Amino acid sequence: MMSKRGRLHRKMTPFLVNNYNEETSNSLKPAVRKKDQAEQCISKKIGNKYGVDKRRNNNGTYKHRTV
Fold first, then answer.
1. Which residues pair with 66 in a beta bridge?
2. What's the number of CA atoms in the CB half-sphere (13 Å) around residue 51?
3. SS (H, E, C) the chain
4. Cα Rg for the chain, rounded, in angstroms?
5. According to the model, what pLDDT value does residue 67 have?
């Protein structure tokens, strides 16, 4: 079975290419974790004008949960 890190590097999405960074002392951006992104999403109500949470579930569709 492939490790978590191996899977991550094999399938780099555009979001990860822009935001993912190794946690090193000289990195410009801190490593982004999915959970942190989700909490930010709820706290800032990022989404459409109706306040729909834009987090995706595991099949890639939006959860459509009102914030």
1. 52
2. 6
3. CCCHHHHHHHCCCHHHHHHCCCCCCCCCCCCCCHHHHHHHHHHHCCCCCCCECCCECCCCCECCCEC
4. 14
5. 47
Residue from 17, 39, 44, 33 nearest 55 by CA: 39
From first to last of its 67 residues, the chain has per-residue pLDDT tens of 555 555 555 555 666 555 555 544 444 555 555 555 555 555 444 445 555 556 666 666 666 555 4
Cα gap 3→40, rounded to integer Å: 27
Calpha distance 30→44 (Å, rounded): 19
pLDDT at 24: 44
Residues 22 and 20: their CA atoms lie apart, in Å, by: 7
